[in-house]
Amino acid sequence: MINNDPSMNKFWTEVFNFCETTTQSVSEYLLINAGHLQATRKDDGSLITQADRWSDQTIRDAITTKFPDHGIITEETEHILPHKDWCWVVDPIDGTTNFTRGVPIWGISLGLLYQGMPVFGYVHFPPVQQTFHGYWYNDTGLTGPQGAFLNKKPIQTSKDQPSQNHLFNLCARSTEVLNKPFPCKIRMIGVASYNILMVACGASLGGVEATSKLWDLAGAIPILKAAGGDYLTLESEPVFPLTMGENYGERPFPSLFVSRTELIDIFNPLVSFIGEKVKLSLIK
Q: Fewer CB near the terminus (10 Å): N or C of the chain?
């Protein structure tokens, strides 16, 4: 259903325009500095640069100015889901290792939650000039624009069956999948959101992320769902809607992403052990 409420139509237009303007502005600085900044290691082992901090602060300031009533979660600062209907989830540089080493696949991810559910995503990859966005309202009661897009053109997931001429994306912590025969060729790009969005645009049939965080997923999941794809948490409990007041800073979200729901039955038996492995690592 397309929303005919003028105020909501105006809201979604403002959201899209804000994301487009903000990511384009931030990307100018990031492109100049990609591959030229010293990185330090955070407590979780991931890398951070001055550019991550600058991008994080710049995007937070922009959101606060444009949407003062919205909450914000970002990778580098606030991790507690606020008690607000609307909340932005920001990954200022998804793929910091690639960014630091000069590998030209990294992005800026903006996800918008409504009552803990991801409903809109906008992910911009400056080096390759690819911009994804999409709307997925699930059971929130929201209406508005529909669909998933790459550079403003509609995209859909693949309807193909797995074969050795099709791709499946792994993360660095899921390579044990290769210990047994796998029905697709494997790719590992090193950027969680890009792994998911390659499924959304039909390039891959699926992918798995063992330790992705909320900011890795919040922007990409609405786009994947809007494009016809699906995801399965490799945990015992559903992930969404998120719980207000909960700290999501250290929580991993092991997940399987597929081009269509029917493929869950094919891929899940091959990757389901990853969820248990992540759970055991947290206990230790």
A: C
Beta partners for residue 110, in sequence order: 90, 122
CA separation for the pair 134, 210 (Å, rounded): 24
Chain-centre distance for alpha carbon 14: 21
**Helical segments of the chain, H only:** 6-33, 50-66, 96-101, 192-200, 214-217, 220-226, 264-271, 273-283
Q: CA-CA distances (angstroms) from residue 92 to 59, 102, 133, 206, 215?
A: 8, 17, 16, 25, 9
Looking at every residue in the chain, the average pLDDT score rounds to 92
Per 3-state DSSP, the chain is made up of helix, strand and coil in percentages (nearest 5) of 35, 25, 40
**In a 3-state reduction of DSSP, which class is residue 80?**
strand
Q: Residues near 155 by Cβ (< 8 Å), separated by ≥ 6?
A: 132, 148, 149, 200, 201, 202, 227
Q: What is the pLDDT of residues 107-133, one digit of tens each?
A: 999 999 999 999 999 999 999 999 999
Burial of residue 5 (CB within 10 Å: 0-12, 13-18, 19+) is exposed
Other beta carbons within 10 angstroms of residue 231's beta carbon come to 24
Closest by CA to 253, choosing from 224, 213, 281, 223, is: 213
Residue 283 pLDDT level (bands cut at 50, 70, 90)? very low
**pTM surpassing 0.70?**
yes
Question: Which amino acid does the sequence have at 159?
Answer: K
Q: Which domains, ranges and CATH numbers included, belong to the chain?
A: 6-154 (3.30.540.10), 167-283 (3.40.190.80)
How many other CB atoms are found less than 10 A from the CB of residue 17? 11
